[in-house]
Amino acid sequence: MKDLPRYNLLGSSPQFQQTHAHIQKIASVDATVLIAGETGTGKEMAARAIHYLGSRSDHPFIPVNCGALAETLIESELFGHERGAFTDAKAASPGLVSEANGGTLFLDEIDALSPKAQAAMLRFLQDRTYRRVGSGLTRQADVRIIVASNANLEQMVEERRFRRDLLYRLNVLTLRMPALREREGDAVELARIFLARFSRQYRLESKTFHPDSLGFIERHAWPGNIRELENAVHRGFLMCEGSEVLLEGARGDAASVKPAQELEVNFKAAKARAIAEFERRFISDLLGRTDGNISRAARLADQDRSAFGKLARKHGLGQSSAAQSMEAGE
Fold it and tell me: Could you report how far apart the first and last alpha carbons of the chain are, in Å?
């Protein structure tokens, strides 16, 4: 397991040590892998470790975010196209599958594939053959497929939003990345690693965590997992004016500890604060699960996109993602 820290798979908890062992076992065999886990748990890092610890390490590792692929161009992006195959095809393109030949094709957010794209992927998985768009020539690729999802694919199958036969093809080996809240002691260990890393990155003196920060790190559920923790430490490091880093959440906890006579007893004000905090955490969690995609987060929340976007902006969340979504015509 000594090689895994090279791929940022850090943590000493028994739960994560079991994950390390599972990754090394999977890396030793050349089969399709489905990596499951919440957003921010390190699914792509695990996929990279499987590739570079395996027999294909000298060949390409090609990551693809399925949620970012336009439905009309999915086959062209994956399998390539010939010149003139469609309006904007001014030159031939080999496609991502061809680029990954001999190595690994990592398909993140596999649950985002449209029904048409699922059918195309199923055809390829059956015998690793494909045709470029606009070509009658059948090609073959020697590619290991690793996919990842933070969605419940079994439930999506039951709801007829994901093909059962495709899930069977993908689910040869399964790796579940544990949530940070399930990894006892790892949150503090990772936070200290991040703090030291930021000191080196910005060439500033080393800092330590305020005791309130350590307590907060241990107590917080971290719905955005490692990504949320790293962002919190990064923000705390940059805003720190002394030698001790006090995280934003810890600052709120410290401020809330008041003598009884100073406690807020106004019901209306307390209710408003509770609602605002719920909204902020709920939206932040959804945006974390969808990598900041406003449209997908709104669909998960069963809310109108415009109303959800307005609520996100109210809490200072997702502005850049909203702009990107509008530019993409969502």
Answer: 43
CA 103 distance to own-chain centroid = 22
Identify the residue whose tokens are 């995609």: 293
CATH (residue range 4-178): 3.40.50.300
Domain residue spans of the chain: 4-178, 190-256, 258-330
Q: What global pTM score does this model have?
A: 0.74
Which numeric CATH code is attached to 258-330? 1.10.10
Q: How far apart are CA 106 and CA 142, in angstroms?
A: 14
- How many Å apart are CA 270 and CA 276, to the nearest integer? 10
Q: Which CATH architecture has domain 190-256?
A: Orthogonal Bundle (1.10)
State whether residue 46 is helix, strand or coil.
helix
**DSSP of 13-39:** SHHHHHHHHHHHHHHTS---EEEE--T
* DSSP category for residue 56: T
What whole-number percentage of the chain has pLDDT above 70? 88
Q: What is the pLDDT of residues 151-176, one digit of tens each?
A: 999 999 999 999 999 999 999 999 99
